[in-house]
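Contributing new records

If you add data, match the layout below exactly. Sequence lines come first and carry their own label; structure lines follow with theirs. Keep one chain per record. Anything else will be rejected by the validation script.
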Amino acid sequence: MLQPAHIVTPRFLKTPDAAIHLGLSARTLEKHRCYGTGPVYRRLGGRIVYAITDLDAWAELGARRSTSDPGNGVVHPAKRLPAGAVQR
């Protein structure tokens, strides 16, 4: 008899899949990586991967309840930060 296969949930996503997870284009995620404004990533061999927990934590920085809610963090646009800007 065949044993039921174990379902493996991925912990890391490559850039295209990470972008889909966040609802962004892969190019936008690449720009965030270059400018240092995006989620934490890892280089495994020659591949860039993102932990799902890091993607969710980065997206959570942008969580707001209303337009007047300052929130707990900032998700910067995918462009170079001005000198002196604080990256969280």
